[in-house]
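In response to reviewer comment 3 from the previous cycle, which asked for concrete evidence that the modeling workflow produces usable outputs, we include below a single protein chain processed end to end. The sequence was submitted unchanged, and the resulting structure tokens are shown without manual editing.
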Amino acid sequence: MGTAVWGGHTDGAIYLCTFLSTGASVPGTNGFAFWSATAPAGPPVVDPVALARQALRSLTIPAPTPGRYPAGSLDTGQPYTVVNAYTWFWTDAASFEVLTARADAGGVSAEVTVTPTALSFMPGDGGATVSCPGPGVAWQPTDGVWAPSPAGCDYRYPHSSIHEPDQEVTAVYGIQWSVAWRSSTGASGTLPALTTTTSAAFAVAEVQSLVTG
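The workflow returned the following structure tokens.
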């Protein structure tokens, strides 16, 4: 039988192909032998980084909700904040949570962990972007109208927006996310960081006092 498998060839090699089974088959009957001049191709190697990227694509990563104080409305209905006041910014806690996802292929799995690292606020008046390490906190009347945010998530506008287009600024809120992955092969690493954003337009008004309630 061995001679028959060689088929008259004197080069190459004989390879045994064994099928995966549940153990119900009789040993020695769940495969076959064949000759090949070169080694047959093995199963494709699964790239754990590609699996991690696939897992990442399956996630819906939330954008920030544009919480802000002061957040009243002018007589025109235009929302506003106030010159030199501490303008608080925050996002809902639900948009600032760790996310995970997993992808599997060819007996290999990879899991990604997407972690929010900072909330940023681009004020829209030409000033530098500011950020804080958490989602910020929503202003409450007991905090006082001129108090800074205890989370450090605030910005003070030095000028009114009277000379801006439509007499308002467009601020951009952003959540920065780090992306780490780990594979069943033992390999691990990181993918490029991500940022999700939301914009909010409002006036920056000059007022002498704030009325709350």
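The CA atoms of residues 137 and 147 lie 13 Å apart. We consider this sufficient to address the reviewer's concern, and the full set will be provided in the supplementary archive.
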